[in-house]
Design goal:
- Helix 1 runs antiparallel to helix 4 and helix 3 crosses helix 4.
- By secondary structure, the protein is mainly alpha-helical.
- The model has no long low-confidence stretch (mean pLDDT 84).
- It has a domain of 58 residues.
- It is elongated and about 50 Å long.
Length: 87
């Protein structure tokens, strides 16, 4: 599953690489807002819980971190578009 989307930001690749390098604890608790964490968790649950997974099926679930990175990239892109409109 690809969580990529087309961005208007010329720095999206750099931003994505930066997010990949950030430790989980900093990504979840310092960079992301509570609202972003809740949204990412909701997306993760919607995509991974098609009914409750059996204990042996947890290895097939996508990492929640991927969804938080996706939300942060979407928010970065939204902020970039907003700044360009004001510019």
């Amino acid at each position: 599953m690809s969580l990529e989307h087309r961005s208007q930001s010329p720095y999206m690749e750099d931003f994505s690489r930066l997010l990949k390098k950030v430790p989980d604890e900093i990504l979840f608790w310092d960079l992301a807002t509570r609202q972003q964490r809740i949204f990412a968790r909701s997306l993760w649950e919607a995509c991974n819980y098609k009914g409750k997974p059996k204990p042996g099926e947890f290895q097939y679930m996508e990492p929640e971190r991927d969804y938080l990175e996706w939300v942060l990239r979407m928010d970065h892109d939204r902020q970039w578009q907003k700044a360009c409109k004001k510019g």
